[in-house]
């Protein structure tokens, strides 16, 4: 059985950054993820999508951000169990935890941090009768390789951040980009909305609102979509149709761990350290919920930081930790080392 300080369920950006914050406290981490590589949604769904709300980066590619996080935590030598799903959580008599995966791997830890993002997820699909006939034949739900759309006619449907971000990005890649939304208003960042309007004015994006894609056409391969606007239907030739209506999240086995769940998210105490109703089990990132919750990567980083502080205080209640800034102490200059903490516990006994 593998042993560690913090078992992290999920190797997305929040889980990866938690390794860094734990490392500053000399706490070891073991990450478990269903996917075959670290990075979560950033790696699996949109590795080349630009991200605009990471401090210090006007724009950073999703895969680049994951690479930087991996480089940042390399010094703390985290362990990974990938391509395996955490299925059971059992609390031991000594208040440690054992997590078992679907392939029988067992990891024992002093605390558990659930950083599973949206959990397992599926794209929300529009109600088009023959949609399945064109999946992987012109219908795509994710943009994993933007270069495949080079010189192609692309129709994107949706009004959220992903729809607008990819419309902006692909306007410099595709032959043509048409963005279709059933409302005139968007649910995306104001900056993205302004960029789309500017690209429309420049003739680089064809913006059609309010309208919907109601049918697909093509002989074995998508060749056109049927748009309906104000009761009038129009056929629009295209090579790709990308409906971006978000993801349907599912917690999977985690939902059976006795955690307090609200609207498919784990309730936590955000007033302190994002602990769940089970002492020693925490939830950080998109998987949790609390009043005022924002599902942003930078919020996950903040939650991971406070979670690690909470774990340290729980494991070493008699050891007073004095926060030092990395700009002053450096990564190796922290006095909260494992030996000192363990010594403090022994002395307290």
UniProtKB/TrEMBL annotation:
- Extract the GO molecular function terms from the UniProt entry: ferredoxin-NADP+ reductase activity; flavin adenine dinucleotide binding; NADP binding
Q: Where is the FAD/NAD(P)-binding domain?
A: 5-291
* Cofactor binding, note field: Binds 1 FAD per subunit.
Q: What is its EC number?
A: 1.18.1.2
Q: Per its Swiss-Prot or TrEMBL entry, what cofactor is needed? A: FAD
Q: Which domain of life is it from?
A: Bacteria
Its recorded reaction(s) are:
2 reduced [2Fe-2S]-[ferredoxin] + NADP(+) + H(+) = 2 oxidized [2Fe-2S]-[ferredoxin] + NADPH
Task: Give the keywords, sorted.
Answer: FAD, Flavoprotein, NADP, Oxidoreductase
Q: What class of enzyme is it?
A: oxidoreductase
Which residues are noted in the entry as FAD-binding? Answer: 14, 33, 41, 46, 86, 121, 286, 327
Q: Which SUPFAM superfamilies match?
A: FAD/NAD(P)-binding domain (SSF51905)
Partners and quaternary state? Answer: Homodimer.
Member of which family?
Answer: Belongs to the ferredoxin--NADP reductase type 2 family.
Q: What is this protein called?
A: Ferredoxin--NADP reductase
Organism encoding this protein: Capnocytophaga granulosa
């Amino acid at each position: 059985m593998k042993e560690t300080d913090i078992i992290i369920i999920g190797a997305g950006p929040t889980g990866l950054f938690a390794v860094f914050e734990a490392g500053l406290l000399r706490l070891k981490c073991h990450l478990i993820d269903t996917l075959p590589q670290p990075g979560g949604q950033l790696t699996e769904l949109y590795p080349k999508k630009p991200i605009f709300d990471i401090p210090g980066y006007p724009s950073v590619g999703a895969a680049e951000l994951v690479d930087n996080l991996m480089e940042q935590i390399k010094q703390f030598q985290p362990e990974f169990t990938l391509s395996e799903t955490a299925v059971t959580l059992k609390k031991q008599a000594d208040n440690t935890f054992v997590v078992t995966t679907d392939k029988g791997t067992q990891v024992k830890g002093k605390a558990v941090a659930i950083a599973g993002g949206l959990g397992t997820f599926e794209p929300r699909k529009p109600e088009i009768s023959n949609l399945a006939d064109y999946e992987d034949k012109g219908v795509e739900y994710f943009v994993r390789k933007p270069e495949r759309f080079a010189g192609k006619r692309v129709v994107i449907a949706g009004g959220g951040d992903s729809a607008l971000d990819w419309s902006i990005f692909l306007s410099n890649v595709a032959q043509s980009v048409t963005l279709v939304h059933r409302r005139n208003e968007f649910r995306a960042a104001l900056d993205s909305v302004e960029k789309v309007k500017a690209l429309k004015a420049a003739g680089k994006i064809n913006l059609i609102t309010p309208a919907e894609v109601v049918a697909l056409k093509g002989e074995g391969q998508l060749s056109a979509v049927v748009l309906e606007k104000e009761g009038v239907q129009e056929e629009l030739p295209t090579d790709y149709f990308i409906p971006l209506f978000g993801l349907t999240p599912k917690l999977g086995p985690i939902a059976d761990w006795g955690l307090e769940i609200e609207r498919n998210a784990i309730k936590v105490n955000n007033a302190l350290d994002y602990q769940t109703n089970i002492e020693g089990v925490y939830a950080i990132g998109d998987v949790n919920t609390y009043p005022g919750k924002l599902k942003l990567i930078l919020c996950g980083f903040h939650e991971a930081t406070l979670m690690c502080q909470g774990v340290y205080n729980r494991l070493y209640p008699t050891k007073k930790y004095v926060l030092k800034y990395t700009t002053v102490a450096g990564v190796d200059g922290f006095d909260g080392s494992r030996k000192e903490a363990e010594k403090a516990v022994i002395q307290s006994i």
